[in-house]
Design goal:
- The protein contains 8 helices and 8 strands, in the order βαβαβββααβαβααβα.
- It is an alpha/beta fold.
- The protein has a single domain, classed as P-loop containing nucleotide triphosphate hydrolases (Rossmann fold).
- The strands form 2 sheets. It has a 5-stranded parallel β-sheet. A 3-stranded antiparallel β-sheet has the order 3-4-5, covered by helices on one side.
- A hairpin with a 2-residue loop joins β4 and β5.
- α3 runs parallel beside α7.
- The chain is globular.
- The model has no long low-confidence stretch (mean pLDDT 94).
């Protein structure tokens, strides 16, 4: 079984996907972490070469490995970068990196490969539309921008990262615009995806709504 979870930044996609993976006993794969890892690599390389463009990134020098589990681990050239990729500097740039076609092509191939022969749930921006267009269940998650900004603010606080609510909101709106208008695999709700607006839902309520959808879809 393949479950695709798409939606906007900070709308709770990953939280929902992890909860569903645990409930259903399937593998959770965070596609966004892969794009973040490449973004981190770009930022590191740009320190050495300030004029390096995203398009010039040498993808053949980047090795990304994903170790699924309760707390998935993302490795960048054999280094655990699971925490580093959540820094604001990465969040500020990841949508621009994700818009580069050669990066998307490479990661879509990788995402399909690691899902082979498994029951998985994967979250991202183009999982239901591009990566797994024939997924058994497609969910599209959204929430009001102020709600999303507050959630991200609290998440960063828990990690000891200080960023103002206005900075976070501005970053989310910028990412929404880039993700929704890029020419390659834009963020979009497919016709067969179920919309979940979790603005007024808590974590458990969101999970139950999704489980009801999955049970209804798979029973049919």
């Amino acid at each position: 079984m393949i479950i695709a979870v798409d939606g906007y930044s900070a709308c709770g996609k990953s939280t929902l996907a992890k909860d569903l993976a645990k409930e259903l006993g399937i593998v959770y794969i965070d596609s966004g972490a892969m794009y973040r890892a490449i973004t981190l690599y770009y930022l590191e390389q740009r320190e050495k070469n300030p004029i390096l463009t995203i398009e010039e990134l040498p993808l053949d020098q980047i090795q990304i490995d994903f170790i699924p589990g309760h707390k998935p681990i993302i490795l960048l050239n054999n280094k655990d970068v699971s925490d580093e990729i959540r820094q604001p500097s990465v969040s500020d740039l990841v949508s621009e990196v994700s818009a580069v076609s050669k990066i998307r092509t490479a990661l879509v191939d990788f995402q399909r490969k690691i899902a082979e022969g498994k029951s998985i749930i994967m979250d991202g921006r183009d999982i239901g539309s591009v990566v797994f267009p024939n997924a058994d269940v497609k969910l599209f998650i959204t929430a009001a921008i102020d709600t999303r900004a507050k959630r991200r603010f609290l998440e960063l606080q828990q990690r000891g990262i200080q960023q103002s609510l206005e900075q976070i909101k501005s970053n989310l709106l910028k990412r929404d615009q880039i993700d929704s208008t890029r020419s390659d695999s834009p963020l979009t709700q497919t016709a067969d995806a179920f919309l979940i607006d979790n603005t007024l839902l808590n974590r458990e309520q969101q999970k139950q709504v999704a489980l009801n959808i999955i049970k209804s879809k798979t029973n049919n």
